[in-house]
Write a structure and sequence with these properties.
2 domains; Rossmann fold; six-stranded antiparallel β-barrel; 16 strands; Tumour Suppressor Smad4; binds adenosine-5'-triphosphate; 9 helices; alpha+beta; two-stranded antiparallel ribbon
Length: 307
């Protein structure tokens, strides 16, 4: 039995993974990893490959891709019954555009360093979020390891993903989409229930996080602790658009949380209801719409991590 199963998304970050996979393969062969690998062929293929790999007895599943590929792998792990999630270890070799999940848990963007982390074999255990949402009025569920974003955040992600499909990606594309989305966007009214405490708010943007970064290095949830059994929530109320532009730099170092429109919470469950449809992204993947129900699963995922 080979020790590792690599799932390679050749399409990640404008086909970067396709170009560098031969170099990665070369290093892992030299490092004497025993492994098998497969390329993903489209959306949710990493999910199916993960379930198949676990069924076939692999315990170490390594994603070579971006946050979207990692999210599909995680959903594979939590939607199979062959093994308990704590018997499996996930590894990340970031070849995506944002690679935001790994930033909180000590995974370097450099693939040589990322391979070293896997080889060293240090395991961290982190929480996982589960969100219930709707897609064309059908109820669906998705697990996430990093951040779920709604309102403005989800609109920007949706537009960035459309740009990615046209092969325009990168942090600059996210920033450009942020500005063009801002021009049209209006805050939306919603009822937010945080651990059974309900409030009606006019929301600009909201992030429910296990880890800290999204949008290609923006520290949207600065207080997140990946293994404390709590979501950290950043809620931005109806902020004037000029203030968003003025304070953009503060999103990168997390200092925007001091602005008067920003509130932070810690909670084990969150519910969001609204008259208008509010959109959702998790780990950078655009999904469906409100109403939403979030719950946290404490310390259920093993990751080869550097911290
Ligand atoms: N062979 C393929 N062709 C086209 N798309 C694919 C293929 N394999 C996987 N995908 C899809 O590519 C999408 C993007 O992948 P991923 O998120 O890993 O990279 P990224 O968007 O460049 O990085 P990040 O999410 O970190 O910004 C995912 O939704 C995935 O389902």
């Amino acid at each position: 039995m080979k020790e590792y199963f690599f799932i390679v998304n050749p399409h990640s970050s404008g086909s970067k993974a396709k170009r560098i996979w031969p170099l990665i393969k070369d290093i892992i062969e030299k490092e004497r990893f025993t492994f098998d690998y497969k390329f993903t062929e489209g959306r949710m293929h990493a999910y199916n490959l993960t379930i198949e790999a676990i069924k076939n007895g692999y315990k170490n599943i390594i994603g070579v891709g971006g946050d979207g590929t990692m999210n599909e792998i995680i959903n594979g792990i939590f939607n199979q019954n062959y093994k308990n999630s704590r018997e499996i270890v996930v590894g990340i070799i970031p070849t995506g555009t944002g690679n935001d999940w790994g930033k909180t848990i000590g995974i370097p963007n450099d693939y040589i360093q990322a391979i070293k982390i896997i080889k060293e074999g240090k395991i961290i255990v982190q929480d996982i979020g589960k969100v219930e949402y709707y897609n064309n009025n059908e109820r669906e569920e998705r697990y996430f390891a990093n951040i779920a974003g709604m309102f403005f955040d989800a609109e920007v992600t949706k537009n960035t993903n459309i740009s990615k499909d046209k092969n325009k990606s990168g942090a600059f594309s996210y920033l450009l989409n942020l500005l063009t989305t801002l021009y049209k966007y209006k805050s939306q009214k919603a009822k937010i229930i945080i651990d059974d405490k309900a409030t009606n708010v006019n929301v600009f943007s909201m992030a429910v996080g296990i880890c800290k970064y999204s949008g290609g290095g923006m520290m949207m949830v600065p207080s997140a602790i990946p293994d404390d059994g709590y979501f950290d929530i950043t809620l931005i109320e109806n902020i004037p658009k000029l203030q968003v532009i003025k304070n953009i730099k503060k999103i990168f170092d997390g200092s925007f949380i001091q602005l008067k429109w920003v509130k932070q919470f810690k909670a084990k469950k969150v519910e969001i209801k609204s008259k208008e449809k509010i959109y959702l992204e998790v780990d950078g993947e655009s999904l469906g719409h409100s109403p939403f129900k979030f719950i946290i699963l404490k310390k259920v995922l093993n990751v080869f991590g550097g911290e």
